[in-house]
Specification:
heterodimer, A: 272 residues, alpha+beta, 12 strands, B: mainly beta, 1 helix
């Protein structure tokens, strides 16, 4: 893609006929756009055209496909100090710049080799974190960190994130905590049953449900049964198994509190 | 796109340029055939940006040939159309 800083657009006028100076018309619906939105729309339109051509090709001996597309757009770039946006040139407007998009064919294999993997359903996107400021989100996006996986990839390579973003981003541990919190919001824990059992000759308490242990954090889960710390023997998404040695059900309810991770504590009363 | 817009979706312009089947409609089996077509043309194009930032493209081939006091902003599009092998 190239931007040419040129003067008036080529209006295709020829000859020496006197032409009145154009008066610009202002369309209120013509608003500034960013490059990604425009590219998304352009690619969607071209994909639709390819789909239509593919369908037509089903019944034809020879079919054609669009291999390359160049679009020269007349527009006015604007920079607000944070990002560049563009306003499409309107009839009669002069002094627009040329923005050229060159789209070439690319195979699925090349995409797999060169593009980052697409976000998965359980990925937490940085731009959806409620507790992170817009400036930090933009700074992270500018260095290619858009979701939790990107963050982990950068962390594994030992990149100093604060330096890379000009001190606009929190450090890894703070970001990881925000992502953990957002993950937990999506995966609300639910307890369905709690029952005593014997496992390996020891009394244990099984707590069954959904989304119980979904995050790994040192020191978690942590359980208190009637105020006494209890060892968590196994912690899985659908079952927690607590050591219940010496526990005797009382006539009244017993109180079980489990901190599943730094952001989630479940408390329940156990009755016979 | 507005129901009364004189412009059309870019998809339709591209499809029209790349739909070359009719060229072969009456050709014999051993006739030469088009292998590659490059279409370059000016294009009227309007962008509509929604409040959420999404952009829609409305396009049309140039609708006027004579210069007038207000000329449309003419963008350009170039399509390389090839046989789908």
């Amino acid at each position: 893609m190239t931007i040419q800083d040129t003067s008036a657009p080529d209006l295709g006028t020829t000859g020496g006929a006197a032409v009145a100076r154009p008066m610009a018309t202002v369309d209120e619906r013509n608003r500034a756009w960013n490059l990604k939105s425009f590219m998304d729309s352009l690619i969607v339109e071209l994909d639709r055209a390819q789909d239509v051509l593919a369908v037509k090709g089903l019944t034809r001996p020879v079919t054609y496909t669009v291999k390359d597309v160049d679009v020269d757009l007349r527009c006015f770039p604007m920079y607000d100090g944070r990002q560049v946006r563009f306003m499409t040139a309107q009839p009669g407007q002069e002094g627009s710049s040329g923005l050229r998009f060159s789209l070439g064919s690319i195979s699925a294999g090349t995409i797999r080799d060169s593009a980052p993997p697409p976000p998965e359903a359980d990925d937490i996107r940085i731009d959806t974190l409620e507790d992170l400021g817009e400036e930090a989100k933009e700074a992270l996006a500018s260095v290619g960190v858009r979701n939790g996986r990107d963050l982990k990839r950068i962390a594994d390579r030992g990149v100093d994130l604060r330096t890379a973003t000009g001190d606009k981003s929190p450090d890894y541990s703070d970001l990881a905590a925000l992502i953990t919190k957002a993950t937990r919001k999506r995966l609300t824990p639910r307890v369905e049953t709690a029952q005593l059992s014997v496992d390996d000759k020891r009394l244990v308490l099984h707590v069954d449900g959904q989304n119980l242990a979904v995050l790994t954090a040192q020191g978690y889960p942590y359980a208190l049964l009637d105020g006494q710390p209890r060892e968590v023997r196994t912690a899985e998404r659908e079952r927690l198994t607590l050591d219940a040695t010496g526990f005797r059900p009382r006539s009244g309810p017993s109180r079980l509190s489990v901190a599943l991770d730094p952001f989630t504590v479940i408390t329940m009363e156990l009755t016979r | 796109m507005a129901w009364d817009s004189p412009l059309t979706a870019l998809e339709q312009v591209v499809t029209a340029c790349a739909d070359l089947e009719q060229v072969h409609a009456d050709a014999a089996d051993d006739a030469l055939r088009l292998d590659r077509v490059v279409v370059g043309m000016p294009l009227e194009l309007q962008t509509r940006t929604t409040d959420s930032g999404e952009v829609t493209l409305e396009t049309s081939p140039p609708r006027q040939a004579l210069p007038t006091s207000v000329m449309p902003a003419l963008h350009r599009i170039r399509l390389v159309v090839e046989v789908d092998r």
